[in-house]
Amino acid sequence: MKLVDLSHVIEDSMPVYPGDPKTDLVQIKYLSSDEYNNHRLSIGMHSGTHIDSPMHLLDSYQHVSELPLASFTGEGCVLDVRNQPVIELKPEYDTTVKLNSIVLLYTGFDKYYGTKEYYENHPCMDIELCKFLIEKKVKMVGMDIPSPDIYPFEIHKFLLKNNIYILENLTNLDQLLDARFEVIAFPLRIKADSSITRAVAKIL
């Protein structure tokens, strides 16, 4: 069995979306002096690899911890959308994308992770592609960029309104090209609008 880690490392002062709070990860106990090690983490739920749920941008009172676990795992497919400023629907996606699957968008932009380029010049999804994903009853759409759109985040809202959760800031999607795989990306059991996650692909 081969597992591919699709997540960025959580660390002190890691890259965050402009305007989001800084991540603080500090060691608070040391084996040499306290007889055990311990760390404390202060992190926004949209830092690093994470899942957006409807509560993030819609008038919803359902925390991410209350969503069905089955929504966060399932057969996956990767769409190679490199060099596309606008990620548009293509005819071949009708056979590539299966019903009730998880779709990952490989833009190659993870190489810019943490830079101004990553946050300000990333590709955006086209509305027709979103409508297609809704027709396919996709559980979740993941991407190696910080967002599927820019302010006022209409693509975000459109997907979330239709219960397609958004998995952002992925990496290593190039390792999934031409592979059959299952996506496993559970949110924390946390009463929040969204959640950091350890996203993994299990090669079949």
Please give a structural write-up.
The chain has helices spanning 31-34, 93-96, 116-120, 127-135, 154-161; strands at 2-5, 24-29, 38-42, 50-52, 73-80, 86-87, 102-106, 124-125, 140-143, 165-168, 181-184, 194-196, 200-203. The chain is of the alpha/beta class and 204 residues long. The strands form three sheets. A nine-stranded mixed beta sheet has the order 1-13-11-5-7-9-10-4-12, covered by helices on one side. A two-stranded antiparallel ribbon has the order 2-3. The protein is globular, with a radius of gyration of 17 Å. The mean pLDDT is 98.
Question: What name is given to the CATH topology?
Answer: Glucose Oxidase, domain 1
Helix content: 10-25%
- In the CATH hierarchy, the architecture is 3-Layer(bba) Sandwich
What is the N-to-C succession of helices and strands?
EEHEEEEHEHEHEHEEEE
Within CATH, the superfamily carries the name Putative cyclase
Spatial extent as radius of gyration: 17 Å
Strand order of the largest sheet: 1-13-11-5-7-9-10-4-12
Regions with little confidence, pLDDT below 50 for 5+ residues:
none
CATH class, named: Alpha Beta
Characterize the largest beta sheet: strand count, sense, and whether it forms a barrel: 9 strands, mixed
Instruction: Name the average pLDDT.
Output: 98
Which percent range describes the beta-strand content? 25-35%
Backbone shape: globular
- The total tally of domains equals 1
Cα(first) to Cα(last) distance is 8 Å
Question: Structural class of the helix and strand makeup?
Answer: alpha/beta
The total count of helices amounts to 5
